[in-house]
């Protein structure tokens, strides 16, 4: 009886092996038969994409602006740029919705700079940003886009920096002013920033300005602008208050909405490690010891936690600095510059 069972088991095993081999052969044949169509489809798609490829040079931008973006290595616009540049060049209002990091600064910066009156030194473009850091970043981008425009000046104005220095720069003339709502509002009330000849107003990261409580200041600033000014409103989300502002102040805006395919860039690798609060510093220290890196940004929930973590990492031999709202602006800027310089 035992011998009979053994024979049955051996035969069953052979049958299973034969079936698996037949299945593998079938899969291989199917894969081989599908290779050519897939490759043809990929080549056909690439060919179609190349034929439909839009370049910055196709969008009607100023030649000096095109020279600058060529120096920066940009050739093809992102979706938000491709759909916004034309309408802004034509003088239309824009209501744009796209995630942070999709190229919104160039989407409004390139066309508006292309329309700057080079013979005039008064403020022609005002860009409102929710934070000092973003205002500085946008101003630097505009300066790089306009590097070949003669006698061009862009001025970032924000709280925490010298008021007198900013007033002197305004008196000299700046065609583009980039600022936070509070400082811009203050400069207008004191008569230092004049908007009577303003041609374009940009509201960048409008939902962030709403979240930070600036929306009433933003509306006040809009009301100080000429009635015929052009407005470009960009926001990652469209809460009801932002929709109301757009409906009230924008003139027949062209809506540009770029769907977010992913919440983060495909080049970003995401990992997580579940650690209890008591062991977080040990886990973080271990990561810093074994992971290769040039520079790191570590986010904490509060300013106090940022200071505490900085001190604990310094005690363990790591070079780090805290960065939060209670630190003076000049020190924050130096910290950011040091972070940028790390290669």
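^ Assign residues to that structure.
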């Amino acid at each position: 009886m035992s011998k009979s069972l053994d024979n049955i088991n051996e035969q069953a095993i052979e049958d299973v092996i034969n079936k698996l081999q037949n299945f593998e052969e079938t899969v291989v044949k199917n894969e081989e038969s599908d290779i050519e169509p897939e490759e043809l489809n990929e080549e056909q798609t690439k060919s179609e994409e190349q034929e439909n490829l839009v370049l910055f040079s196709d969008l009607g931008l100023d030649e000096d602006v095109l020279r600058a973006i060529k120096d920066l290595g940009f050739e093809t616009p992102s979706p938000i740029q491709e759909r916004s540049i034309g309408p802004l060049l034509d003088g239309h209002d824009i209501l744009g919705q796209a995630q942070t990091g999709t190229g919104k600064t160039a989407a409004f910066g390139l066309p508006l700079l292309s329309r700057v009156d080079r013979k005039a030194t008064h403020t022609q473009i005002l860009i409102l940003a929710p934070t000092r850091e973003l205002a500085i970043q946008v101003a630097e981008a505009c300066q790089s886009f306009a590097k070949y425009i003669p006698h061009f000046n862009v001025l970032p104005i924000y709280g925490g920096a010298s008021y007198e220095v900013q007033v002197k720069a305004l008196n000299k003339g700046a065609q583009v002013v980039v600022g936070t709502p509070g400082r811009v509002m203050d400069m207008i009330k004191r008569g230092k920033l004049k908007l009577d000849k303003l041609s374009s107003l940009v509201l960048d990261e409008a939902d962030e300005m709403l979240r930070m409580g600036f929306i009433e200041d933003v509306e006040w600033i809009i009301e100080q602008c000429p009635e015929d000014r052009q407005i470009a409103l960009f926001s990652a989300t469209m809460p009801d208050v932002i929709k109301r502002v757009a409906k009230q102040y924008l003139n027949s805006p062209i809506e540009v909405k770029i769907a977010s395919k992913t919440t983060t860039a495909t080049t970003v690798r995401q990992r997580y490690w579940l650690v209890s609060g008591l062991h977080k510093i040990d886990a973080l220290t271990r990561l810093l010891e074994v992971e290769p890196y040039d520079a790191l940004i570590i986010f904490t929930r509060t300013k106090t936690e940022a200071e505490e973590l900085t001190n604990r990492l310094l005690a363990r031999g790591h070079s780090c600095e805290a960065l939060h709202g209670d630190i003076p602006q000049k020190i924050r800027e130096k910290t950011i510059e040091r972070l940028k310089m790390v290669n």
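The chain has a mean pLDDT of 85.
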